[in-house]
């Protein structure tokens, strides 16, 4: 296939240098660029003139790209504007930020549509898989490849530059989108990762006039996860990139942003050793029926008998209302209708909630203390109050989470679309209710992992904790016990 080459943003190369107040017909191309990438609003009647609005936008561009901030259109600004780059905006209506929002579900799926004829075989697909793996190694997220028929969260495709969902014409290498709560292309699934297949040459590695698939995929997946462009030159999330180069490792700036969105205190899926904190012995198990396949603790064996596969089926969270810092709790009695309320921190399981994906994009919310499900009345006579109920297996107990910032979500009942809210007064018992959208902090909830450097392991069926005998007479057997609140029930979980 012949080489594809394009001079990025060619119209800008012919624009003369201008200072504030000067004008030239060609300056319209600069105005178009500044609008396209988020530095200013729609073009005005003074498109040819470097007026106050254009000077302010140019100053923002210069600051974002590490140039001298002059507000003028000069040689260095022209050079930076005519580089190959990502199609996502640098700013969101004129304000720079490094993070945008996150996914409530840490287990995402992706699928491929068409590849590119620039690369022999299917190496471009493996390059994208490698990029997913780099992000998964940095934060507690999993990415599972599925087919397009399995309703993936993300779809990867090579498309013409005039992609109907987001144009890549003129020097844009690729585009993606942000998570569903803050998308600029769509707030429905699947989210796109689209590569320009008509104006750019795709390669594996550093090749003259070619662009490394893994390098560009790593950047675009950062957007998919909720990262905005960075102003740190050399970071993966910097908006421009050169041909004949690779950048396949996350920098400190990239890691700082992604870990603010997805704190690493959440345990990612993988293989772990589990070591009792009190004596350092490892969780092991007998391999034969004569020993009842009993769990024991043993010194390190460095083999698979002491390695345990951890797979997330949900996460335990404390849910705190952003407006007042009070925690989601629930009455435990019929007399109070098992009504949900907000309370100051109790540091117990009445304020811990298990979020489990249902499979349709919604979640159930189950109170850890009694395993009853969050539900809500459907009528005004009951103030649309939230309650806990035994399993109903219907949409009244399914909740849609949408990110409203780092660890912050809106929670909407699937059956009626009303949002979780809470009374602000003791007269109303700080009761939790559902309300139409208010677009304020009373409907924004902060989800915090309920963990520490070590973990307790509690059996869901009976609420007893994993413990272990301390003596050889008892074969150091692992047992369950009621809460002891000491290190015999604290376990250090180490990734293998």
What's the layout of helices and strands?
Blueprint: H1 10-13, H2 28-36, H3 52-64, H4 75-81, E1 107-112, H5 123-138, E2 142-145, E3 154-159, E4 174-175, E5 191-196, E6 201-203, E7 210-212, H6 213-225, H7 252-261, E8 270-276, E9 282-285, E10 295-298, E11 308-310, E12 315-321, E13 327-330, E14 340-343, E15 353-357, E16 363-367, E17 373-376, E18 386-389, E19 399-403, E20 408-413, E21 419-422, E22 432-435, E23 445-449, E24 465-468, E25 478-481, E26 491-495
Parallel strand pairs: 1-2, 1-3, 3-5, 6-7
Antiparallel strand pairs: 4-5, 8-11, 8-26, 9-10, 12-15, 12-23, 13-14, 15-16, 17-18, 19-20, 20-23, 21-22, 24-25
Helix pairs in contact: 5-6
Describe this structure as you would to a colleague.
The protein has 496 residues and is α+β, with helices and mostly antiparallel strands. The chain has four domains: 10-81, PGBD-like superfamily/PGBD (Muramoyl-pentapeptide Carboxypeptidase, domain 1, Orthogonal Bundle); 107-261, Collagenase (Catalytic Domain); 270-312 and 452-495, Trefoil (Acidic Fibroblast Growth Factor, subunit A) (Trefoil), CATH 2.80.10; 316-445, Trefoil (Acidic Fibroblast Growth Factor, subunit A), CATH 2.80.10.50. It has helices spanning 10-13, 28-36, 52-64, 75-81, 123-138, 213-225, 252-261; strands spanning 107-112, 142-145, 154-159, 174-175, 191-196, 201-203, 210-212, 270-276, 282-285, 295-298, 308-310, 315-321, 327-330, 340-343, 353-357, 363-367, 373-376, 386-389, 399-403, 408-413, 419-422, 432-435, 445-449, 465-468, 478-481, 491-495. The strands form nine sheets. The chain has a six-stranded antiparallel sheet with strand order 16-15-12-23-20-19, with no helix packed on it. It has a five-stranded mixed sheet with strand order 2-1-3-5-4, with helices on one face. Helix 5 (123-138) packs across helix 6 (213-225).
